[in-house]
Amino acid sequence: MRILHVLDHSLPLHSGYTFRTLAILREQRALGWETVHLTTPKQGAATMLQEDVDGLLFYRTPSSEGCGLFTQMRLTTLRLAEVVQETQPDLIHAHSPVLNALPSLRVARQRRMPVVYEVRAFWEDAAVDHGTTTEGSIRYRVSRAMETYALRKADQVTTICEGLRADIAKRGLSPDRITVIPNAVDVGKFRFGTEPDPGLRRQLGLDGAFVLGFIGSFYAYEGINLLVEAARRMLVRLPNLRVLLVGGGPQENNLKAQVAAAGMHDKVIFSGRVPHDQVQRYYDLIDVLAFPRLPMRLTELVTPLKPLEVMAQGRMFVASDVGGHRELVRHGETGFLFRAGDPAALEASVIEILNQRDSWSKFKAQARRFVEVERTWANSVSRYREVYSRALARHGRRVDL
């Protein structure tokens, strides 16, 4: 069984997208399947045709800086046709965005091959958050129409959570064409209950502090501004509170301005982006993590990876009650939920956790057990067996899986 994965981007770039991809490839190879990998122009301007990264061979799509969306799709189509001719896969597995699905469908139609389309988020919703379009605009409607077209034409559709599955079903797909392959974690890669590095804690000025923190990209939908506001309110009763923000992104300047306006420059630490192999050291410094995602279509539908990762580490955390979090977090058992968009509710949730310090070890053990039993990549990836069988069957083909 040979599967050609068409990807937005891959290693050496680091993102939740690449981490999910690597887990899928690792587990599929463990099942005895052969995987081939093509990235689109979104990988970045490049002239190389192939690149070996950590033992995986990635076919690249040569491109130049700043090429438009339709040029990206044209380049992807041409390169995909070449890779299909060279590698002769049994099927094409296109991963979102839809800019990958449409070229895959075109090439597959010419070769009479099945296509599995994996939706990790809808392209139109991501564009709304990044400010390149607005919900209901012409561009939004066109993007949504393209997505719906790709979903209906694919032989099988997979997605990462129930929220996205329900939305896909509303677009006219029958239940037997949609399968949820949920996000998971490799618990062996996360250390449980490790102690903070005293040198790093001292370097960041966190000695003797209660540390509330966020690690990730600073996008508007993450609601980090609510975390800063909740911390400002908590300082009255928790003068030793410090906020550690690890990462960077579009909202960084706005957050720094908010901190300055609140006079909290000595209470909020911006570490900047840190190397991936150093992130664990920063996690170890944080007493309670916060995921204050704002209520909007993207966050209601899509489940993030971060809560699962912190459960694997046995970290205490609070998360807003958007749909993507409610699907992952069992309130009062594996984590704590609060009313989305409300800094007072975030404050109350953190105080609730502090009042239950004697039970922290129990909560941490429950969270770790949840991911060990219910959210392993081996369990998730095994679901592709039936997906691929159905896709091949639609073309009158059978492959030993």
3D architecture notes:
The chain has 401 residues and is α/β, with parallel strands linked by helices. 42% of the residues lie in helices and 17% in strands. The strands form two sheets. An eight-stranded mixed beta sheet has the order 3-4-2-1-5-6-7-8, sandwiched between helices. A hairpin with a 2-residue loop joins strand 3 and strand 4. The termini are close together. 42% of the residues are buried.
What keyword list fits this structure?
single chain; 401 residues; alpha/beta; eight-stranded mixed β-sheet; six-stranded parallel β-sheet; 17 helices
Q: Give the number of DSSP strands.
A: 14
What share of the residues does DSSP label as strand, in percent?
15-25%
Class by alpha and beta content: alpha/beta
Q: Strands across the major sheet, in which order?
A: 3-4-2-1-5-6-7-8
Low-pLDDT regions = none
Mean pLDDT: 94
Give the overall shape.
Answer: globular
Question: First CA to last CA: what distance?
Answer: 7 Å
What composes the largest sheet? 8 strands, mixed
Our Rg estimate from Cα atoms comes to 22 Å
By DSSP (H or I, 4+ residues per run), the number of helices equals 17
Helix content: 40-55%
Describe how the helices and strands are arranged:
Blueprint: E1 2-7, H1 16-30, E2 34-39, E3 50-53, E4 56-59, H2 69-87, E5 91-95, H3 98-111, E6 115-119, H4 123-129, H5 138-153, E7 156-159, H6 162-169, E8 178-180, H7 198-203, E9 210-217, H8 224-234, E10 241-248, H9 252-261, E11 268-272, H10 279-283, E12 288-291, H11 297-301, H12 306-313, E13 316-320, H13 323-326, E14 336-338, H14 343-354, H15 360-374, H16 377-381, H17 384-393
Parallel strand pairs: 1-2, 1-5, 2-4, 5-6, 6-7, 7-8, 9-10, 9-12, 10-11, 12-13, 13-14
Antiparallel strand pairs: 3-4
Helix pairs in contact: 2-3, 3-5, 4-5, 8-14, 12-15
